[in-house]
Design brief:
This protein has 98 residues and is mainly alpha-helical. It has one domain. It has 5 helices and 3 strands; from the N terminus they run E-H-H-E-H-H-E-H. It is globular, with a radius of gyration of 14 Å.
Length: 98
């Protein structure tokens, strides 16, 4: 199964104990995990926020782990259908990629 991983889920999985971390560690491996370059950059910016108190070395390890687990895909065709939340259009575009 193909899953698009939102930046907020990744940031939570690496910085805050809880459900997102448990799901990330436990069971997403058998799936094809997709992120876009924009999602990856958003995660990097999020992890660098001072509230998480992560060192540059820790962030580098986390980002490498994300790249090892996820396939970075740049959607070729933007989704043109109706959206409840326009901010999620890029996620639908990514999910529709083959």
């Amino acid at each position: 199964m193909k899953l698009v991983i939102d930046s907020n889920i990744l940031i939570s999985a690496y910085s805050v104990p809880g459900e997102a971390r448990e799901a990330w560690q436990a069971g997403l491996a058998p799936h094809r995990l997709l992120i876009s370059p924009e999602i990856f950059l958003e995660v990097e910016r999020g992890l660098r926020q001072t509230q998480f108190d992560l060192s540059p070395a820790e962030i580098t390890v986390m980002l490498k782990d994300i790249l090892k687990r996820c396939e970075v895909v740049r959607p070729k065709t933007p989704y043109q259908g109706e959206m409840a939340d326009e901010n999620d259009r890029h996620l639908v575009s990514l999910a529709r990629e083959e």
